[in-house]
């Protein structure tokens, strides 16, 4: 998990990004096929969740992720 402190696109004060491999095990971003990001308000309440799926055809250092915003909990 990577925590990013500072303003988020949806008005949060920090975000967390979790990275998973094809077996659902948490891994670093360089080995991930799925990423899950959450934005939080000052009280720690989730205000936005975003799910990303890595494009397996993309190679190199700049690997594309397709965004699928799937939830708006806490709004």
Structure notes:
The chain is an all-beta fold and 75 residues long. 0% of the residues lie in helices and 45% in strands. It has no helices and 5 strands. Strands 1-2-3-4-5 form a 5-stranded antiparallel beta sheet, with no helix packed on it.
List keywords for this structure.
75 residues, mainly beta, 5-stranded antiparallel β-sheet, 5 strands, 0% helix, disordered C terminus
CA-based gyration radius = 13 Å
Q: Got a strand count?
A: 5
Q: What is the number of helices?
A: 0
In terms of DSSP E residues, the strand content is over 45%
Oligomer: single chain
Alpha-beta classification: mainly beta
Task: Explain briefly what this protein structure is.
The protein has strands at residues 2-5, 14-20, 34-40, 46-54, 65-71. With 75 residues, the chain is mainly β.
Detail the topology: elements first, then pairings.
Elements: E1 2-5, E2 14-20, E3 34-40, E4 46-54, E5 65-71
Antiparallel strand pairs: 1-2, 2-3, 3-4, 4-5
